[in-house]
């Protein structure tokens, strides 16, 4: 059982996506967890990530087996998910929970803006579907109140139901069913009659999303040379604001017995942009104050903004904090992110000495990410979580990595 499961739900929700030391306290690996190279493999390693990245990706390779499970809408009506909500329709589907304090409101605001854009240009009929990742809390009444905040119309359905039914939907759309706070900001766009689906970054420009949604019954476009689009500036500003609000409520937690040292964090061999071999705990964490996050170099949404943000943090730390602080950024895409790629990435983002960009054998990196609560099967599913920790004292904080640099520095002071 993970240590943060012992925290009250109120505390977890107050922190939003910044759950306190959730992964660092995963005392027992779940059956689907990756297996380190130094341990006999008892479960298969996660499949390599597909070419689908976090921006708008071509949909021809995506197939969705829609579960026709019974769900409840915001008015308490029983509906069949596939037959009543998706079949024969052009749809946009996101994943939210009503007590979310971070990305759910921006995701919902994007749906509202998409609906307005479609009406402005007299676009095709679209059915918007928001599936709760917290069905035990999100009753139809709670979903109805949440929908009113965004003036949801008759073409926008909020979905809850039994845990079994919702998990079937999450599995069909490749959405993790772990902690609600750790769900990724993905949106699926679909045209069910032609079986065309696109998975996209949910905070992209509403106009861009509408363009792609409206074209799903037409031949698939060729991928742009520049890759996936950058996130919308307004959406990033919203994320920064949410991150700042959540960070202000974050409190220090002490690591529980059994969740400290090399025995927990592991000492698996890894590499960095400038060192051919490091031991994760001994070389990057032991007796240090650390900032730890995940990313991947080809990311086209939040990774670059996060890394630029942390570069500003590193500058402020050098000016204001006498205690050395090590930054550790762990790739979620070991197949692409070689030391050479990470070295170029670090230089491009003005990383100073004392900042390690980490890669290595996939099974080793995956296990380390799992221990930190940062593991996902696909690179684009990573979350912008930032650990602030003092290994010597066992004090830890968890923030959103887009929190203001001054706020992150203040968090470092709290763990000293």
Automatic annotation (TrEMBL):
According to the UniProt entry, where is the signal peptide? 1-28
Statement: the UniProt record of this protein carries the keyword Signal: yes
Ordered alphabetically, the record's keywords are: Signal
* Gene3D superfamilies for the chain: Glutaredoxin
Query: Is-annotated flag, keyword Transcription?
Result: no
From the record, give the transmembrane residue ranges: none
Give the family, as the similarity comment puts it: Belongs to the SCO1/2 family.
- What protein name is recorded for this chain? SCO family protein
